[in-house]
Amino acid sequence: MSSPIIELKHVYRSFKSGREIVPVLQDINIAVKRLEFLCLVGESGCGKTTTGKIICGLLPPSAGVVDFEGAEIASLRGENYRRFRRSVQIIHQDPYASLNPTQTVSEMLSYPLRRHKLAPNRRGVLQRVRELLDLVDLTPVEDFIDKYPHQLSGGQRQRVSIARALTTEPSVIVADECVSMVDVSIRIGLLQMMMDLRARLDVTIVFITHDLALAKYFAWDGRIGVMYLGRLVEIGPTQEIIRNPQHPYTKVLLSAIPEPDPEKTRSKQHIQLRSEDIPRLTELPPGCSFHPRCPWYVRDICDRETPELSIPLNAVNDVEVACLPLQQGRELELHDA
Amino acid sequence: MSQNLPPDVALKVDDLSIVYRTDRGEVKATANVSFALRSGEAMALIGESGSGKTTISLALIRKLPKNALITSGQILYQRNQEVQDVLKLNSRQLREFRWNECAMVFQGAQNAFNPVLKIRKQFEDTAQSHGWRDKAAVRERALSLLQLVRLDPERVYDAYPHELSGGMKQRALLALGVLLSPQVVILDEPTTALDILTQRAIIDVLNDMRRQLDFSIIFISHDLSLAAEMADHVATVYAGEIVELGGVNDVFYQSLHPYTQGLLTSVPTLEHTQDLLQSIPGSPPNLITPPVGCKFHPRCAFADDVCMEDSPPLAVDVGGHLAACWHKDRLIESRKARV
Q1: pTM score, whole prediction
Q2: Residues 6 or more apart whose Cβ sits within 8 Å of residue B273
Q3: A155 to chain B: which residues are within 8 Å by CB?
């Protein structure tokens, strides 16, 4: 197996909030494989965006190590660091906030080209800008090149964001909820374009979303990592996770999602949580942080020890889960709500 | 008033058109919208942002912004065989109508409560301004409703909004919405911006409430799954018009409008197989100068000369399955061909 392009090893990250310290990420271990499509899913506050920012080097971890092509990011200097910054790009969630309202599309796209000296001269820069707009289907190019963000629709802005992420010919793109603010009818088109670019340009994609159905659709041949309250609770091949979720949280999540099909969604079995209250990050319960809500909770195990990701005993596939009873090969018993 | 409505119709909107006057011109936010809501049923207005679905719902309780102008139509409301035209109510009648008859639960429960008043005070104020004087009775009613939405009634009733989580606030707001036993409850994006597990709790609570309290729901959403789960009838809204209206199964399984069909093929499911998804090309039109003819024609695969000239009609017929499209037959044919 080829070495991972990005690897997070025991990454922790906390933020100060007033006098409190909020542990947003705890002991995250992810190896992003070259050219894979990795999806991080989870609910708001689970730490998926923070993970994305750490992957891009936009935030340093509070503890732990992030490697890019085998070298620790924090130790990179000079040209090596610039190469890392060029190689890893991010597409932000909100195209209304992430584009500078005072710059034209052409200015936005040419800045990184000039900054990283990726085109020989002014004409080369312009040529490259036109190629990029063409890549993201903003054609005819003349109609878009001198536009300001306010003259573009949400979908067009997000295409500009994608073009901007591509300026430096990155090998990794982190796409953070990049379609959640775009209308349903054009979402799929935008993502299909990204998939197409990924194949043409050899890009590894880390796709961050709260929408498991979307994750399933786009990471069909990739992997899904499920996060809960700052930890990765399950990670494995998408098709396995969707067909045969192992971790209780993933099971509950999949059972709770309504489907765009009246008969299916109304006959779906919903697993009831033991509690609907989400613990605060500053007051995490001891042991597994899902145990107060988990319908399969085992007393004296789940509330004592914090589980780490591993492949459970007698597992039928290579999905890693962080759940002690599962790892011990127990049959889970459903509690009544 | 002399209008007659079938006895089971709670609300009937006829040919409603609304424009917003702006510096750039008139925005035709709602055009010739007609539908009927029967008592006890849940109807979903489905559409993308800017399609005019919120405008329709605001008109129902006459809460449109000042620059809005209703250019045609009537909104008939019926309870106990008495019919009122909502657009003709005077301010006193309107006060009676709102919340007692028709309540709205706005989008973003986070901000709907006054942050400096306890939940108790907000229930009491609402009841008082609608003529309830007996605080003990309000309390009793409020506690039973909070119980119904699966909250700890005593604790929540005496809490400040900031002490509640997003999901709890949304549920408390639902309880407040039905405090005065309205016949119609309008929910604007009831689950948007909530986590999946919280959404599930809200959907379950809403279903419980409907079973026990017997009111009709109009809910506005861009989320097809929510409509599939909760609605009896679905209306698809595009560019300010209802383009398709029908029973939930009819609309989802036998849609008659290319836009609805397009929406349905652009959302992934959790099935164990790979979906065949496709976006609708183009983007929603500008409503200051909407396209002539069928407003969907620039994005529609079935469009021809007729569509560019004449706008297809949508007749009113309670209980039927209707679509404003000249080419329903071709749509049905193409669906058969794909299966």
Answers
A1: 0.89
A2: none
A3: 283
